[in-house]
Write a sequence for this structure.
């Protein structure tokens, strides 16, 4: 079946612009996670959804970052007023139980 | 707070040689342990996981790992590597569920790049 998909795969934007990154999880997966991966580092947790409820947003770096999952399926991570330090790979994962997370291919964000 | 340390950032080996990728973790609570692999331009793929039971865990592609609670380690091993094993490998931990609530937030190490030479 289809895996986790993310779009766009690559996004180049100018500093100060807003961006929206989309994650389409595996159908039926209750849990959805967002991670950010800087070059040469492991992924770092950003936020977690259980169905449509955002149950943990402790990893969001500041209030320019927000995420939603309004119908318990597709999720959007939004970064407002982007800065160069926001450049990274943004990864989404979904899970039926939390034990095993299935990752999407990621969105490579470059802020110029 | 949890942390994961992957002791080697890069591991070069020759084809058909054995390999061990080292991972140590720290946590104040019991954890689940995972190894993920990332091939170029692809997403993270689960290699294996330790949830409970036998401390020797076998995964895909001939990899295995052993959970050592006293040493807080979860090293990944393969007796004979192939060129196709060239990739970046990540060790990760998550807390055991609390009260039956599914959560599973992962804390990752910094990754180990395995390069297999012919």
């Amino acid at each position: 079946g289809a895996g986790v998909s993310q779009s766009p795969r690559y996004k180049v934007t100018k500093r100060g612009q807003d961006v929206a990154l989309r994650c389409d999880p595996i159908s039926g997966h209750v849990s959805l996670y967002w991670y950010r991966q800087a070059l040469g580092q492991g992924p770092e947790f950003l936020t977690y959804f259980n169905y449509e409820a955002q149950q943990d947003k402790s990893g969001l770096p500041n209030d320019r970052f927000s995420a939603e999952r309004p119908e318990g399926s597709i999720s959007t991570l939004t970064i407002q007023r982007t800065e160069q330090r926001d450049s990274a790979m943004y990864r989404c994962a979904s899970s039926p139980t939390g034990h095993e997370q299935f990752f999407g291919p990621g969105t490579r964000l470059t802020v110029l | 707070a949890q942390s994961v340390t992957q002791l080697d950032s890069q591991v070069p080996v020759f084809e058909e040689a054995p390999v061990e990728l080292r991972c140590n973790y720290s946590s104040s609570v019991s954890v689940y342990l995972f190894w993920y692999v990332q091939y170029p331009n692809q997403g993270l793929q689960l290699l294996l996981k330790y949830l409970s039971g036998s401390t020797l865990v076998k995964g895909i592609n001939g990899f295995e790992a052993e959970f050592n609670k006293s040493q807080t380690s979860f090293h990944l091993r393969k007796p004979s590597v192939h060129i196709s094993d060239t990739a970046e490998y990540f060790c990760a931990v998550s807390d055991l569920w609390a009260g039956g609530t599914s959560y599973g937030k992962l804390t990752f190490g910094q990754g180990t790049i395995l390069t297999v030479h012919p």
Remarks:
- Chain B touches chain A at residues 4, 6, 32, 36, 41-46, 49, 51, 90, 92, 94, 97, 102-111 (CB under 8 Å).
- The longest strand of chain B covers residues 87-95.
